[in-house]
Amino acid sequence: MATQSLVLPEVSTRRAIRRADSQRSTRLLLGSSTTARTLAMIALVLMTAIWLLPFAWAIITSFKTETDAASAATVWPASGWSLQAYVNVLTKGDLPVWMLNSVITAVLVTAITLVVSAMAGYAFSRTMFRGRRLAFAITVASIMVPGQILIVPLFQQMLTFRMVDTYAGIVLPQVVAPVMVFILKKFFDAIPQELLDAARVDGAGPWRTFSTIVVPLSKSILVAVAIFVFIGAWNNFLWPFIVVSDSSLMTIPVGIATVTETYGLQYARTMASAMLAALPLLVVFMLFQRQIVRGVATTGLGGQ
């Protein structure tokens, strides 16, 4: 009982501190004026509505028949709600195959990018070698290079290595993420050097220090980076569209672009495919939204 009586005030004190910090951050951003807060809330509601309107239209269209979807006379289904578009997508199309391809490529891109970016960020942050500053400057500068410029040389490389129409051809060009290296490097810079020195005194080498000290302390930012990379790889259209022509290797964005019939685009089927394709991303965001917010706050608002 005594232990519980000590724990409860401590928990309530932590909650009060968090609430005060949140209120203080709100005042810093919006000020103490009620008018400013009201205007900010109105602006947020309007922006949310603008973002949700196309999403709502897509959901409604996916439950229409093709005749109602092609008609602009009414927003609501004139012939009633229908699941035929979803049935057609799941039974007559290749959506399950495209979704499996998207899962495979997105998971591989995320895993490889996370490992490469974390090791590169740690090397730039804590390892001293000749040309380190120049290499990091080149890495940061490459963030400003549009990815579209690299499409032709990348495709030529895939042809040379015979990786066109393969998973490797889809995955490998996407694993280089300079912005993630920069974010992780800045996070690793904030880790106290004393912890790393203590690990070295205990006999830990660079790899053990990285795996047992740095990685456990960086779980929040690693999760955030993994989620951002996964979403980017899942939604990537241009590169898979260029490097893949085999329908059995297409990802969801490329496959949805091919959902057509002989007499034109099927709006209801396309929207149903888009809704099914968005479900995994919604699940990922709902499960890891706290880690996403924490990672963004740590790398941005925290000044690190």
Automatic annotation (TrEMBL):
Subcellular localization(s) per the UniProt record: Cell membrane
Main localization of the protein described in the UniProt heading: membrane
Family membership noted in the UniProt record: Belongs to the binding-protein-dependent transport system permease family.
Topology within the bilayer: Multi-pass membrane protein
Annotated source species: Occultella glacieicola
Keywords annotated in UniProt: Cell membrane, Membrane, Transmembrane, Transmembrane helix, Transport
Residue intervals passing through the bilayer: 39-60, 98-122, 134-155, 167-188, 271-288
SUPFAM superfamilies listed in its UniProt record: MetI-like
ABC transmembrane type-1 domain sequence ranges: 99-288
Cross-referenced Pfam families: BPD_transp_1
Protein name as catalogued: Carbohydrate ABC transporter permease
